[in-house]
Amino acid sequence: MLRNALPKIVTKVLPGPQAAQIIARRAQAVPSAIRCDYPVVIDRAEGAMVADVDGNIFVDWVGGVGVLNVGYSHPDVLAAIHAQTDRYLHAMANIITHPGYVELAEALASRAPIRGERRRAYFTNSGAEADENAVKLAKAFTGRPNIIVFSGAFHGRTLLTMAMTSKKAYARGMGPFPDGVYRADFPNLYRAPAGLEGSDAIAYYLSSLEQVFEQASLPEYVAAIVVEPVQGEGGFIPAPLEWVQAVREICDRHGILLIVDEVQSGFCRTGRLFASDYWAEAGIRPDILATAKSIAAGLPLSAIIAREEITESVPAGVIGGTFGGNAVACAAGLAVLRVMERDQLARRAIEIGAIVTARYRAWAERFDVIGDIRGLGAMIGLEFVKDRTTKEPYPELVRDLIAEAASRGLLIESAGTCGNVIRFLAPLVITDAQIAAGLDILEASLEASVPRVPQTAGSTPGAA
């Protein structure tokens, strides 16, 4: 059964002959800006394993970039989808109520670690839509025009979320952008200014936020501060709890709402249903939660959750949409929640993270190009540098590693503002044998790639 298989490359080259033909057709039919550098054309997939059209089998550590926390083709999710499609495919929530929408809204509202006893939730189709709708809620509730986001942030590719996203390579040629989006430094402790550690580093990053109030927008005009609890595209950087606590206090002092972007970090990835559950355990709760990706195991769905007084401040017609909360997607979302809770995938994420991080730490003793190891649960970043003292990013090596690993049957992806981080987003249903096989492939890829470059001695990195 593919679900329990191990990676195996059977063609002499990648892509294989059938995959090469389809990839060539893609090059003629699909805009080249929608890049795909992987030599894989999927035929079928189960769990964490992908079989291509030529019979090659890959272990997938990308998981649709965080979409497949319950894995490919989970039988319980498929059964829920099939049961719903036998009844109807869609009922627009603005016109006809379908029970799945209500049930999933109730389930997420009761589980979200946000402020307020009475909560409401509604649905859109993508992470970018969820983030944009969270901002809508904040502006409606506060009557204020501006928001604050952070360096390294990624929030989407709509016009507003391109403005919110830090890396402007994702928005080349797309301006002008909406006004009222201002940026502070995110607390990347690995790259804090020289000599700053611990509380001193936290204070430095908080001063960056305070400078926004001085230089960009007075706090009384700021509707919300938007934070990823673990930055995704920014390099898998967890927000330190001490900093989050201070940001929450700043928000409370100025009447600003705190929005948590859990598009990539949600649904058990970090060892909790939501990464902000860790905040709640420390007495810190956001006002609005936006989430997507693994919510429906690959079907388009996203959610925005907030306390009732916030959701009810929005005028009729401002939120909602044709496909938001599609019946089949909601059926999948309910099945995902049942699977995650029954199979304790949050606990499994912590187990997976411990296995992977231990191996990464062992590599750090051998490979001087490993600068930092960090993350929460099974959302782990491995940062590569040319020199551990200067911390100069090493994106060229990461590109080599991605290609080398794929040639051996492992799919990995980069992250980080410089593209020098390998992200770990394997489905949480991955077996220990498949984790070990992937780690063996990545180690062999390191051995094949690192000797081609000079190495510099330095301290061994730890893990967040």
TrEMBL record:
<comment type="similarity">
    <text>Belongs to the class-III pyridoxal-phosphate-dependent aminotransferase family.</text>
</comment>
<keyword id="KW-0808">Transferase</keyword>
<dbReference type="InterPro" id="IPR050103">
    <property type="entry name" value="Class-III_PLP-dep_AT"/>
</dbReference>
<dbReference type="GO" id="GO:0047298">
    <property type="term" value="F:(S)-3-amino-2-methylpropionate transaminase activity"/>
</dbReference>
<dbReference type="InterPro" id="IPR005814">
    <property type="entry name" value="Aminotrans_3"/>
</dbReference>
<dbReference type="InterPro" id="IPR015424">
    <property type="entry name" value="PyrdxlP-dep_Trfase"/>
</dbReference>
<dbReference type="Pfam" id="PF00202">
    <property type="entry name" value="Aminotran_3"/>
</dbReference>
<keyword id="KW-0032">Aminotransferase</keyword>
<dbReference type="InterPro" id="IPR049704">
    <property type="entry name" value="Aminotrans_3_PPA_site"/>
</dbReference>
<dbReference type="InterPro" id="IPR015421">
    <property type="entry name" value="PyrdxlP-dep_Trfase_major"/>
</dbReference>
<dbReference type="GO" id="GO:0030170">
    <property type="term" value="F:pyridoxal phosphate binding"/>
</dbReference>
<dbReference type="InterPro" id="IPR015422">
    <property type="entry name" value="PyrdxlP-dep_Trfase_small"/>
</dbReference>
<dbReference type="GO" id="GO:0042802">
    <property type="term" value="F:identical protein binding"/>
</dbReference>
<keyword id="KW-0663">Pyridoxal phosphate</keyword>
<comment type="pathway">
    <text>Amino-acid degradation; 4-aminobutanoate degradation.</text>
</comment>
<dbReference type="GO" id="GO:0034386">
    <property type="term" value="F:4-aminobutyrate:2-oxoglutarate transaminase activity"/>
</dbReference>
<protein>
    <recommendedName>
        <fullName>(S)-3-amino-2-methylpropionate transaminase</fullName>
        <ecNumber>2.6.1.19</ecNumber>
        <ecNumber>2.6.1.22</ecNumber>
    </recommendedName>
</protein>
